[in-house]
Design brief:
31 residues, mainly alpha, rod-shaped
């Protein structure tokens, strides 16, 4: 059970990182 939660949190963390990287990429392209 604990492993499943950990995997879910890790997936969410990766998604947030990807979203942040995309946002940073688009802003640097604008400038």
């Amino acid at each position: 059970m604990k492993k499943k939660i950990l995997k879910y949190v890790l997936q969410m963390f990766i998604n947030i990182l990807a979203a942040a990287a995309t946002a940073l990429g688009t802003t640097s392209c604008v400038y």
